[in-house]
Design goal:
The structure is a single chain. With about 270 residues, the protein is α+β, with helices and mostly antiparallel strands. The protein has ten helices and 16 strands. The protein has a single domain, classed as 4-Layer Sandwich (Double-stranded beta-helix). It is about 30% helix and about 25% strand. The strands form four sheets. Strands 1, 2, 3, 4, 5, 6, 14 and 16 form an eight-stranded mixed β-sheet that branches. Strand 1 and strand 2 form a beta hairpin. The longest helix is centred in the last third of the chain and has 15 residues, at about 210-225. The protein is globular. The protein starts with a strand and ends in a 6-residue tail after the last strand.
Amino acid sequence: MKVIPASGSLGAYLEGVQLHDIIVSESAASEFRQVLVEKEVLFMRGQDQDPLILAKFARRFGAVLDHEAYIKTSETEEVQILESTAEKPSKIEKWHSDMTFMKSPPNFTVLQARVVPAYGGDTLWASATLAFKNLSSAMREFLSGLTAEHDFRKGFEESLAEPGGEDRLKGLLANHPPVTHPLIRTHPESGSKALFLNSLFTTRIVELEKTESEVLLEHLAAQIVKEENTVRLCWEPGTVAMWDNRSTQHKPVNDFFPMHRLMQRITLAGEVPY
């Protein structure tokens, strides 16, 4: 397993390893997880595109989470389909960490390209760990102990506004009322601290007045996604990316319409943030 840094901040390409190697080897899976926590996002080119193989690989790292808002592959309910076409372009364009509207948001996400446009359609990741480290000590002290609210409705407001959207997503709305998480999250495996907020799901800082909350959330969100905190992946068919939602944010670049993009995704169950 050869680890090649993908940027000066986070991310790495892995060479000399296939999904099958990690499926069958406890030591390979353990090494992969250690590198993933350290690098925060890993990229592997030329991987088997069989959804069943992808699911077996993902289960090496935890229990698979369902997401009722997305369709699944015909082969298995564990793999979600994220597809953008000219008729139904992607609606997710904001920086975010996956499913922070849950009491226990996912720890890892696996994403694999099946169909990619001739150009464009890249994905960006940002290190919330590095963003926290780069704050002044006074700001880090001020943020300590603050909490933020995360809301499913905010993140899916466009889908909910579609005809029949409220009815289609009523189960998710009922099962996921707004939740509160620490604004500074401690990573349960590395012990490092990271900013834990995002533009897609975070609505407010609970302890602050409305205007204070809005200004501070905007400032912190901008700190996370500074260029020096990011890495960018140009997809190829078969490329797999796996990232740590506890310490990163990501954002698709929707610059390829009307071309077609088809991805398969798995999210894994995580812990209650602290």
